[in-house]
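Dear support,

We are seeing what looks like truncated structure output for some complexes. This example has three components. We would appreciate it if you could run it in full and send us the complete token output so we can diff it against ours.
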Amino acid sequence: MKPDDIIKLAERDLNLRRSYKYRINVCCSSGCLPFGALKVLKEFQDAVKEFAVEEECKVARTGCVGTCYLGPVVVVEPGDYLYQNVTPEKAREIVREHITKGAPLKNLIYSNETFFKKQLRLVLRNAGKIDPFRIEDYISTGGYSALIKCLTKMSPQEVIDEVSASGLRGRGGAGFPTGHKWNFVARAPGSPKYVVANLDEGDPGVFANRTLAEADPHAIIEGMLIAAYAIGAEHGYIYIRAEYPLAIQTLKRAMKQAASLSLLEGDILESSFKFDVKLRLGAGAFVAGEETAILASIEGRRATPRPRPPYPATSGLWGKPTLIQNVETLANVPLIINNGGAWFSRIGSPRCSGTKCFSLTGKVKNPGLIEIPMGIALREVVFDIGGGIPDGKKFKSVQVGGPSGGCLPEDLLDLSVDYESLTKAGAIMGSGGIVVMDETSCMVDTAKFFTDFCVDESCGKCVPCRVGLVKVKNTFEGIIRGEGKVENLALLKKLGNLIQETSLCGLGQTAPNPVLTTLRYFEDEYISHIIEKKCRAGKCFTSHKEASRK
Amino acid sequence: MSVRTIKLKIDGKEVTAQEADTILEVARENEIFIPTLCYLEGLTSLGGCRLCLVEVKGSPKLFPACSTAVSNRMEVITNSDSLMEYRRMIVELLLSERTHICAVCVANDSCELQEMATELGTDHVRFNRKWTNHKIDSSHENLVLDPNRCILCTRCIRVCDEVEGVHTLDLKMRGKDSQVIIDLDEPWGASNSCTSCMKCAAVCPVGAIYIKGKALSETKDKELPEFVLGRRCR
Amino acid sequence: MSPESLHTGLKSDRRLVLLEKVITQHQYQKESLLEILHKAQELYGYLDKDLFLYISNALDLPSSHVYGVATFYNLFKLKKPGTHTITFCLGTACFVKGVEQIISAVERAFNVERGETSADGRLSLFITRCIGACAMAPNVIVDDEVVGGASKEAVMNKINFLLGDGKVETR
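Here is the complete output from our reference environment:
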């Protein structure tokens, strides 16, 4: 295959797509599957045959639209009619009325302007629109055209410069400028060089990377290819959680299809550029998402981080220069190449260009997967996109950034979503989790929950994280048993500070965030637990009673 | 390849060093004390105990002296108030992690953790101590492994792998549950891979691995690194 | 490598042939340890001493290293799981939506603690940290089926059904 063949293939498939009058996109990602999405898909396929509209209506299996709370979700094009909670019976009805008679079923259509209005779907551009199992779908929507542009019109340095100009920053949490990183690896001596795509989304409450892999696997692969071309890498790894079977299956298929069109392995598109990718499965260790730990895990060892420097950019996999990027970062790259760095830099906020995907969960009316321009206010996320708190309850706190993110109170809701503002408030961008809590959540209990998580996931290599977090946990247990003392709070702060400052890796350094932010913004709840032995949310002492009855 | 000689400041003192040296090596050459527990000359650095963390001017982060290379015109501070406070707390954490009762310990008076507590002035432990009850393995003819006294510095594991070259020892589990194991977590006496070189006992900073019937002061060589490198190995 | 050195008490059956095949595919590379452990668990259900010895010989890795790696990662099981497994997602969203109450109810009702298997070997309870289906929280995985928006009653019914004691409430 040569670049021209890919372009021809795109045209052919686009014409085929246009030959259909209707297209029914059935979401079959992990969010909709438990609600019976496959049965719905089957019913649509049968129904279009039965009503003899096969020629004009295409039924496609797609990835996630984002409205996971409405699953199974089906979108009918043209017009993007979104049908919610579709059952096989409803599927039949949709074909009968909407497809054959051209009359959309108003009572089944979900219209929620606010959920989509404030979003900007760049990374998730294809999610829910293309069949992730068909590489032709990706190619016909412009996929791999950025790779072709790089290979035929740009030098590796020009690619890096374009990425630098875009202002793109790592989406895995720390927000390091991507262009800088690529320059480091490109200039580092040693070969071969490696690209590692980080899909070890271990944060509880976060499923953005999984959704991306399930909906648009080729965007990740194309991003890796472009990165590899830019830095001069020959080999790549995608490190993915074993808990994501559908994403693994989707990626495996995509890699095979890409290889069959000479987009992977060997001489890519008959150029002299070679790049192969292997899939590596995690095995249940949150810390493996840390960049030095992921290397240890790929090398088949215990996933323990090591001190940096040396950074993976100079000494990564088997001591060779290695570029590690989150998959969301990589999925942005084809867009930047096609539209230019300057275009990308105008999206979002000045210091933080582009968008960020978040899993919005907890006590909101519309939980799901969202993508928002950087710099939007948290309030808009929770109340406009999320639709606010259900059941007439009152908002209490929003936790941003996964298990080691901070819990922010209502008066910080006007904070803008970008790396610096969040860090200043004690939260982090993390890998993109937003969990909303209402008045029935106890902040002491919540902070304990996150601490428990970090205790379980600490690798144990460094003392402050391994032992310090256990002492934090013990203190919480004391408070919840009703044995807390006011002095505990000062010691908690000291411990939290120690763990932040002296831990070896990002897990330890951010683990105290929930404790420190709840102490900062919800100290009164701690006080009432300690002095009045009362949990205003009614969580703590009751569960203790239950436990003692046991 | 010639190694460049560079200049840097440690605690205000102007010193010269070779480019590839670590901060710890340079400090020790110049008789500047930086505490360590998991570090041992001759073994790869772990960077786990965090006692050797130092400040480097111009960076908000702290760096482990044992595994950070010096650079030209670097300014290192090894003894600020906050560093001292952190170190005291880390020792406190270690003392409260498992069962450390000096009076009944084989390592009493020759224990590096005990020395460190004295040196740094950790005179009380503010955290609830955890009295662990892990099984002691005394099945080996000469050696005893007591996980209750282990501080997980992994010196024994590294010496077994890097110097003796057998890798009988490793860690199982993770986090607070981590423990030193022999082979497939089996009794030491049944191990086929162990050569009974006893280097593990020699490098243990506490009383977690020791030789039966010997006072620890006898088995601990004052010039440990040489012993580790095998020059004086039996 | 002589066949005797690989002999570790594993029966030479189809499973062993498949495991050998994967090890060959990975060219006996030490870096493939996690992949091999995954495959071994998939074939045998859990990892025991014979498997560890076999893998350690095949990849020429110290047995303590293999054991250390296998116990570091949560997904590797060293004990035989029960006939039926219930896995509770304890991710943040599931926690906020009250999965803890479901877990303790199941623990009490069936007299098994999380991470353990019932005395009769029929039911195992596991905890996982987030399966990424947070919008449907709380999630409980009953054998291989993900139950979204789970309630105490629904999960209990499913378990009763699996254990087949006829106490299923039909709705």
